């Protein structure tokens, strides 16, 4: 009896350690896209085809993949995130510039109150489309660990660049022109 | 008859008054909801969170409390806005079941340990009380200690 109790306790402890390891492993950000980009690859990410509701209109949906043939700068933001709001005027200007060359900015509002998000869109006079990633499911699949984060898709819908944290004018100038110059 | 009817009406009114007063008071409070909700940015319970989004969430909750919504209705509205992860205690589905099972399992293991220790302690105590063991030696004494004890007792008898 004593031996079987010992084994039962060991088995339960092992199960708990396994559970803890699983929890730790699943909570970490996915860096596979970062690794592929650092090796000069352009990964295709299936999650980008996942439809998300349009911000402010849950009856309509869209996805980054809807803009195939265009260069898409996908920006994850939230109204409570100050660095996100600071870069919004730059992103609006970038959207206007990209639109002339077959590109666009696509905002993805995440983990946010809809009213606050819509107020932010209005306050910064954003003309680019915005989707709502309520549970941050897409953000997590792209390995996002904070806000803002930006992913640039080439005209074939592949991830061509990624920026963890706020974008800078310099980064945009280095990243976008070569992609906009490519043909589909 | 009218006096009896008036008394009856008065009694009914008295009985209904606490209910009416209860209906007029808010159905829940901010602290009551806060400790069951997570701050979506910080990953901590809302009642200890101080970030911008935590303030937004508190404002969202307070607005619904003012409208007279119940705690469950407010939690459902929060899930609608932020997803199920906003709740401090997740649904009892899938992997989330572990949140409820693990503490229960740990409790059972602890209880089993205490029972086992108590049983062992009782067994030891019983053996000590029952006197010399089957080998004919006083329990707990080494042979040299037994010899020394016998010698000292013999010296005492003299």
Topology record:
The complex is a heterodimer of chains A (184) and B (158).
Chain A: H1 2-27, H2 32-38, E1 52-54, E2 57-62, E3 71-77, H3 82-99, E4 103-110, H4 114-123, E5 130-133, H5 137-141, E6 149-153, E7 159-164, H6 169-181
Chain B: H1 2-24, H2 30-34, H3 52-66, H4 71-82, H5 97-129, H6 143-157
N-to-C SSE string of chain B, H for helix and E for strand: HHHHHH
What is the mean pLDDT of chain B?
81
What coarse outline of chain B follows from CA principal-axis ratios? elongated
Which percent bin holds the helix content of chain B? 55-70%
Structure notes:
The complex is a heterodimer of chains A (184) and B (158). Chain A is an alpha/beta fold and 184 residues long. Chain A has 6 helices and 7 strands. In chain A, helix 3 (82-99) links the parallel strand 3 and strand 4 (103-110). Chain A starts with a helix and ends with a helix. Chain B is an all-alpha fold. Helix content of chain B is 65%, strand content 0%. Chain B has helices spanning 2-24, 30-34, 52-66, 71-82, 97-129, 143-157. Chain B is elongated. The mean pLDDT of chain B is 81. Classes of the chains: A alpha/beta (184), B mainly alpha (158). Chain A binds chain B through residues 5, 9, 12, 16, 19, 78-82, 111-114, 116, 134-136, and chain B through 40-41, 51-53, 56-57, 60, 81-85, 98, 102, 105-106, 109, 112, 116.
Quick overview:
The complex is a heterodimer of chains A (184) and B (158). Chain A has helices at residues 2-27, 32-38, 82-99, 114-123, 137-141, 169-181; strands at residues 52-54, 57-62, 71-77, 103-110, 130-133, 149-153, 159-164.
Primary descriptors:
heterodimer; A: 184 residues; alpha/beta; 5-stranded mixed sheet; two-stranded antiparallel sheet; 6 helices; B: 158 residues; mainly alpha; 0% strand
